[in-house]
């Protein structure tokens, strides 16, 4: 899976599982979120999302 590949490449990994019951597949991730809308880019040193409702 992507989490394993990302960690093998020594990257920080944020997982967005499509099947919550398989949470054991994501234990190596640095963060697990339920939706990409929950992603806080600032936490990872990136600029925040621009609000599309301008």
Task: Describe this protein's structure.
This protein is low in regular secondary structure and 54 residues long. The chain has one domain (2-43). It has 1 helix and 2 strands, in the order αββ. The chain has a two-stranded parallel sheet. The model has no long low-confidence stretch (mean pLDDT 88).
Short description:
This protein is largely without helices or strands. The radius of gyration is 13 Å and the shape is flat.
Write the layout of secondary structure elements.
Elements (H helix, E strand, L loop, with lengths): L1 H7 L5 E2 L15 E2 L22
Parallel strand pairs: 1-2
- In terms of DSSP E residues, the strand content is 5-15%
Order of helices and strands: HEE
Number of helices: 1
Q: Gyration radius, to the nearest Å?
A: 13 Å
Uncertain spans, ≥5 residues at pLDDT below 50? Answer: none
- What spatial form do the alpha-carbon principal axes imply? flat
């Amino acid at each position: 899976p992507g989490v394993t590949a990302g960690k093998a490449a020594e990257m920080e990994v944020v997982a967005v599982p499509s099947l919550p019951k398989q949470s054991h597949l994501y234990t190596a991730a640095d963060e697990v979120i339920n939706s990409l809308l929950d992603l806080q880019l600032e936490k990872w040193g990136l600029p925040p999302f621009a609000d599309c409702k301008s």
